[in-house]
Amino acid sequence: MENDYLVTVAIALYNGEKYIERCINSVLRQTYKNIEIIVIDDGSTDNGVKIIKEITDKVRIYHKENGGLGSARNYSFEKARGEFVLCIDVDDWLEENAVEELVKAQKKYNSDIVKMNYYINKTINKNYYKGNLGKYANKLIEVEKNRENIVYDIILGNITSYTWSMFIRKSKVKEEYYFEKIHLEDKIFLLRFISNIDKIYFLDECLYHYFFNENGLMHKYSYEHYMMQNIEVNKKIREIIEKYYDKNKKLLGANDTLTSYGTERNLFNIYRTTNKENTIKQYENIKEQWKEIQKNSNYEYLKGTVFEDRNIKAINLWNLGEYEKVFKIYDKEKIKYNIKNYLRKIKSFIK
Hints:
The structure is a single chain. By secondary structure, this protein is α/β, with parallel strands linked by helices. The chain folds into two domains: 211 residues, Spore Coat Polysaccharide Biosynthesis Protein SpsA, Chain A (Alpha-Beta Complex), CATH 3.90.550; 129 residues, no CATH class. It is 46% helix and 19% strand. It is built from twelve helices and ten strands. Helix 1 packs parallel to helix 2. It is globular, with a radius of gyration of 22 Å.
């Protein structure tokens, strides 16, 4: 390609000896050649670094104390020399033409982010699920003219915030946007970062393979943990809206609505996996905070999102006492428990 600029592919490594060879080789095979590969060793205790050195000498490896994935990504931005940065998780891999297609799209549209589509894999040979860019597929968005809508869709999940799905102009990344050690850290980063960019292009081509690791971080914690974390995320996103987006009421409402929904779902799951007493105990922990959040909640915000069927219809039917219809909604999701009895009981003690 003419006028090739340097691209940094940054791999966050923590005890990834089982996957690192696949990941590294997918980068080494890229058709685009002006790439630097950096690996941030986040305090690994296995043989991942040794395996890398046996495979290639074309990698710069940085060692740091363990600080989590977000911390490793922050370090990547500090050490990257490329004009654009692509962050990869160690258990994932790229299509051979991934960087080439990202660079082509970026040059064509002069965008600060190219957000690509992806596959979710349970094995290397089977694409289990394909991502969905929805209404944004193959569209260039001028952020200044559409910032409220973009932020709104990030909050509600209509735009996924996975950092590994984004090709990012490094010069636009300020330290104040850096990742924090908090649940949904990718969303927090993107909500800050989007305040400083001009254009984003959504490339509806699956160039990234996300490995669905059942032992990964997303499957590590309890419903109680995530319920408390959702409350903290709500506070953080509220701060971002107030600082970067002029306390926009629509954005605040969408944030509170999604938090209220998440709290409801976690209480639901705590009840079905433990008992009534534990559910009440957990509810008491967040009752006052949740009441405050609910004041600004409006489930109409969830129309058109992935949560619509599971939330608006179910809650409205629940409030009407039409439990059989609610059961049918959840039965479509193949949830193997009796939600009907749950709804009858939970409403009697969660006030």
